[in-house]
Design goal:
Layout lengths: L9 H24 L6 H14 L3 E2 L11 E5 L2 E3 L13 E10 L2 E10 L5 H19 L7 H14 L3 E2 L5 E3 L6 E5 L16 E4 L2 E3 L5 E3 L6 E3 L5 E3 L2 E6 L2 E4 L4 H9 L6
Antiparallel strand pairs: 1-4, 2-4, 3-12, 4-5, 6-10, 7-8, 7-9, 9-14, 10-13, 11-12, 14-15
Bound molecules: magnesium ion (MG) (2 copies).
Length: 266
């Protein structure tokens, strides 16, 4: 049986929003810096400094033994890649996942960036994964169920021939980074936990260009596609409020930076 979900007050949701917006601003700092030749450790240091300078704490660092502020997953890596001295290269895609803890509440968001000139079929994977996130959010409304979110994501991804990762899922967000309910990116309409006002969840499709199968790398952290083909990951923290989904995190700061770099095509 699923554990009881937490219902947050308006004041608590406002605090999740503050943490989530700091995540968005942090990812915008990453957007400004990300380029061929930059190491993932450089991005991680930038993010940690920015979060602390703005009154937050890195949400992932120290949680489950996580050593870093960001989790950066490149190309065939799906999620949970650890920053290090690896240099990003022209043509890479890098999913950057970030959490912030501030005023006792977490925010969680992720964005997959293009590094330099990325192949059109990989850009298409990123576009469709963002569309999956939007469709998931559109279904995060009162009286729907968690399965409606997953179904919408799965249907869109599979219509493009992509694989939906099963092993990793979205989650409730609040005083803990990961709370019930689990929010899978697959599912059946009308099944699972009932959505109602005050529920705060992270929706985070992880979509593979090839098959859905993943494996864990030898570092004990990184999850990668089994077939070695690229994967994409976008995440928002949202609240169900007055019946609708209210997005608490934002990509708008990221998109402003990418637009100014001439890197936002849509
Ligand atoms: Mg995340
Ligand atoms: Mg998450």
């Amino acid at each position: 049986m699923a554990k009881t979900v937490n219902i947050l007050s308006d004041a608590e949701i406002a605090l999740v929003r503050e943490s989530s917006l700091l995540v968005g601003r942090t990812l915008a700092e990453v957007a400004g810096k990300i380029a061929p030749g930059v190491t993932t450790a450089q991005l991680d240091r930038l993010a940690e400094t920015f979060i602390r300078d703005n009154g937050g704490l890195p949400g992932f660092k120290g949680l489950y033994g996580c050593p870093s502020t960001l989790l950066i997953s490149v190309n065939q890596e799906v999620v949970h890649g650890l920053p290090g001295d690896r240099e990003l290269r022209d043509g890479d895609v890098a999913s950057v996942d970030c959490g912030v803890l501030m005023n006792g509440f977490y925010g969680d968001s992720a964005y997959t960036f293009c590094v330099g000139d990325v192949a059109p079929e990989v850009r298409q994977l990123l576009t469709v994964t963002q569309e999956c996130l939007a469709r998931g959010i559109a279904n995060a409304i009162a009286n729907n169920r968690v399965g409606d979110i997953g179904h919408a994501i799965q249907e869109h991804a599979e219509a493009h021939g992509y694989g939906v990762v099963r092993e990793l899922v979205g989650h409730g967000v609040g005083r803990k980074l990961h709370e019930p309910p689990e929010v899978p990116n697959y599912g059946r309409r009308g099944h699972g936990v009932l959505l109602r006002d005050g529920l705060v969840i992270a929706i985070e499709p992880m979509i593979n260009m090839g098959t859905k199968d993943v494996r864990q790398l030898e570092d004990g952290w990184t999850i990668a596609t089994r077939d070695g083909r690229p994967s994409a990951h976008f995440e928002h923290t949202i609240a169900v409020r007055t019946g609708k989904a209210e997005v608490l995190s934002t990509f708008s700061y990221i998109e402003d930076v990418l637009r100014s770099k001439g890197e936002l095509v849509s």
